[in-house]
Amino acid sequence: EFSWSKVANIQAQLEKLISKNYFLNLSAKEAYKAYVRAYESHSLKHIYDVHNLDLKGVGQSFGFVVPPSIDLGVSASKKMNRDKGGGGGGGRGNRPPHKKTKIFRQPNSKGKFTR
Predict the structure, then answer these.
(1) Distance CA 44, CA 112 (A)
(2) Distance between CA 74 and CA 61 in Å, rounded?
(3) What's the pLDDT at 106?
(4) 36-88: per-residue pLDDT in tens?
(5) What does pTM read for this prediction?
(6) Which of 5, 48, 63, 84 could tie 14 with a disulfide, CB 3.0–4.6 Å?
């Protein structure tokens, strides 16, 4: 039999480490998004329904206090609002998406564009 009292609770340490280390945060964010996308793209939709997935719980397993946003038609803030009114990320509401401005650069004296 296994004694769970001997297992250390490292969730707070994991969250602190992920929040302080840029490269770990970036890797965790990419892994989280890949996991949720793979879950969403699974062929057995009646079992792997992304709309029933606890995104906050999945985000915590990747070391996030607030999970990163992901565009799948469902977001962590929508799920949390439905469950207990939490959230973050300050969504856009009913506003249309922001269009990026195109930037045109002039060529330098040799006819090449600079970065």
Answers:
(1) 52
(2) 19
(3) 58
(4) 999 888 888 888 888 888 999 999 999 999 999 888 764 454 444 444 444 44
(5) 0.58
(6) 63
3-state secondary structure of 40: helix
What pLDDT score does 40 carry?
86
DSSP label of 37 = H
What's the mean per-residue pLDDT of the chain? 77
Sign of the alpha-carbon torsion through 89, 67, 38, 29: positive
DSSP 45-65: TTTS-GGGS-HHHHHHHTT-S
CB 59 within 8 A of CB 66: yes
Cβ neighbours around 59 below 10 Å, total: 22
How far is 41 from 17, CA to CA, in rounded Å? 30
Name the DSSP letter for residue 89: S
Residue with tokens 């001997």: 6
